[in-house]
């Protein structure tokens, strides 16, 4: 199985603006040796390593890890999408076969409509032309802007991270449902079934999460969903194995073994080209 979304970091690097001591157990280093046993127990054989800092220095750090770690299939990195030389930077990274795509940290930016800035739209077009992947990290409030951007760059190969972080702990489904359904109308967009336990809270129950998984299952179907652990962030609410089992249990209500195999391996392998 292929985990489409996990992170590594070293706190001393100092470029993780969101990673503060008040996050408790995840305010420490997480490196490949910390994940190996968890992967073995869950039956995961490869992962996609995703950026956690808005710096190219971290992207270089992750690519170095990927180069020496057998189970890391590739890296989704970060490039400043407003940089005048964005296309040149993207082209340079694309020469590295382990560089699979980019992810701006839209959820943490002051401007909810950042993705619609003209320079960012130009950069999105460059990503689309490159054939690389684009990870969408958002809350529900960002989705109307994402939809508007996708209308301008309809050939962008994109994936919604963490089902766009709906308010699971509060049981809020709308307007998230309508936005997700509209995004699923773009055939080039997929969705990661990931990040749900932390949005549900440490005392989550399977039935709290079911309506959200049911909805993305109906909207995206078995060919545009992919499993992601969001490890180690997920450990704030669940173990690696618990996340894998939760996802498998909820998706089994909709899909059979062959379709689940796509969701847990081949969809992500195809999407990221690994």
Automatic annotation (TrEMBL):
<keyword id="KW-0378">Hydrolase</keyword>
<dbReference type="Pfam" id="PF04909">
    <property type="entry name" value="Amidohydro_2"/>
</dbReference>
<comment type="similarity">
    <text>Belongs to the metallo-dependent hydrolases superfamily.</text>
</comment>
<dbReference type="InterPro" id="IPR052350">
    <property type="entry name" value="Metallo-dep_Lactonases"/>
</dbReference>
<protein>
    <submittedName>
        <fullName>L-fuconolactonase</fullName>
        <ecNumber>3.1.1.-</ecNumber>
    </submittedName>
</protein>
<dbReference type="GO" id="GO:0016787">
    <property type="term" value="F:hydrolase activity"/>
</dbReference>
<dbReference type="InterPro" id="IPR032466">
    <property type="entry name" value="Metal_Hydrolase"/>
</dbReference>
<feature type="domain" description="Amidohydrolase-related">
    <location>
        <begin position="3"/>
        <end position="273"/>
    </location>
</feature>
<dbReference type="InterPro" id="IPR006680">
    <property type="entry name" value="Amidohydro-rel"/>
</dbReference>
